[in-house]
Design brief:
Largest sheet: 6 strands, antiparallel
Shape: globular
Strand content: 25-35%
Number of helices: 1
Helix content: 10-25%
Distance between the termini: 34 Å
Length: 95
């Protein structure tokens, strides 16, 4: 896999044997992110943080995930990126 990250937290991920997917921040609240197909914007996986201190993450698997050979790398990477974003926002808020 190859991830190209822009200056923001968003980026494009090339999966072996599949079309690329994009990692996008959703909304201004910075509590939701998604992997989307870049050609049509169809969401594949959506990650939403909830609870005190955004300590819990809800993952929504869209029907478009069936187009992927294996969605598990995206699930793991998405969960990691969400925790990274939440931890960064906590550090920035405490600074």
């Amino acid at each position: 896999m190859l991830m190209r990250q822009s200056w923001s937290f968003d980026g494009t991920l090339d999966l072996p044997g599949n079309e690329p997917v994009e990692w996008r921040t959703l909304g201004a609240a910075a509590d939701a992110w998604a992997f989307e197909h870049p050609h049509d914007g169809t969401r594949v996986l959506t990650f939403r943080t909830v609870g005190p201190l955004q300590a819990e993450t809800i993952v929504e698997v869209a029907p478009a995930a069936r187009r992927l050979v294996d969605a598990s790398p995206l699930l793991l990477l998405g969960a990691f990126l969400v925790r990274l974003a939440v931890d960064d926002s906590v550090v920035i808020a405490g600074a």
